[in-house]
Amino acid sequence: MMQHQYIERDSGMVVTEQLLGDWMVCLLYHGVRESSTALFKMLTSSRSSHILSLVNFDRPVLNERAFLTTCGIDLSECLDPSSQLDTPRKIFERKIRYWECRPMPAETDVIVSPADARVLVGSFRETSLIFLKDKFFSFEEMFGCGTGEWHTFFVGGDFAVFRLTPDKYHYNHTPVSGEVADFYVIDGDYHSCNPTAVVSVATPYSKNKRVVTIIDTDVPGGTGVGLVAMVEVVALMIGDIVQAYSSEAYNAPQAVEKGMFLQKGQPKSLYRPGSSTDILIFQEGRINFAQDILDNMVHTGASSRFTQGFQKPLVETDIQVRSVLGTVRKRGLQ
């Protein structure tokens, strides 16, 4: 199986990812899926995902510090002492001192990453150099049927896909400031976000269970980047997405509701353990993605399964939560 590499943002280094459970994912998506549709459907169902989660994440960790080190988790970032992180679930649901270790730019026109993740960006416009229509998700299907006409506001827009691996910090943070125009949950499957699974199943992210938050940023105190759709997508072994918005640290978490004002960079939700995906969708002509992310996508020295699967240069950048994803595009400028 081809290796999968990404670009480390701070250093610019090409890194080979150690994909956890890669052999199992390859077997599921190239063996079981091709030989037994019914079995494949069962294994990517909600029930199976919950069972796998319980088996893998609720067992005790015999040596917490060694496990944390093996996973590459920086103990100095954690709010809780390592002695309290005694199961994989507690480790993956850890809180960090993000206000210190994930500083956020002060500029008001900056859109920030919602997660510690590996990111790709794309556009729905055929004239765009990053045109990626229907590679990761079906545009209309992503917003769900019978949930209004939100997709019509984003025709010709841009998007960013953030792939959270199991070792990552699993809180999502708000990428922009604005008012919640809509919030709803769409039921679905639990496909893996392993690159092999993504290129094997057509538009998997719009088939999985997901939470959609529409944020209006053209309001007083908002970021001014138009409507932003933040879609939180569950994946294999993810039990749930817990909405837990906090305006300060992790204090007094609230469920997200229509009419709430969300402040950029604050914790919004928590993924239960496993791998998962965030997708941000922007209206046409409202965002300029950071140049280093665009440059990294066409890096010729990195071997990406997305490049191989989609026959187009697609190399991810490893990005930290609350760091720059892009800036507001001034009206009338392209």
Description:
The protein is an alpha+beta fold and 334 residues long. It has a domain at 106-328. The chain contains ten helices and 16 strands. It has helices at 22-35, 37-43, 46-57, 64-70, 88-92, 98-101, 139-142, 195-200, 291-297, 305-310, and strands at 5-8, 14-16, 110-112, 117-123, 158-164, 171-173, 178-186, 210-216, 227-233, 241-243, 261-262, 267-271, 276-282, 287-289, 317-319, 324-328. The protein has a ten-stranded mixed beta sheet. Strands 3-16-14 form a three-stranded antiparallel beta sheet. Helix 1 (22-35) packs antiparallel against helix 2. The chain is globular and about 50 Å long.
Q: Give, in order, the helices and strands.
A: EEHHHHHHEEHEEEHEEEEEEEHHEE
The residue ranges in which pLDDT falls below 50 over 5 or more consecutive positions are 21-36, 47-55
Shape: globular
Ends apart, CA distance between termini: 40 Å
* Arrangement of strands in the largest sheet: 2-1-15-4-5-13-9-8-7-11
Q: What count of helical segments does DSSP give? A: 10
SS elements, strand count: 16
Q: How much β-strand is present in the residues?
A: 15-25%
Task: Determine Rg (CA atoms, Å).
Answer: 19 Å
Average pLDDT rating: 82
| SS-derived structural category | alpha+beta
In helices, the fraction of residues equals 10-25%
Main β-sheet description: 10 strands, mixed
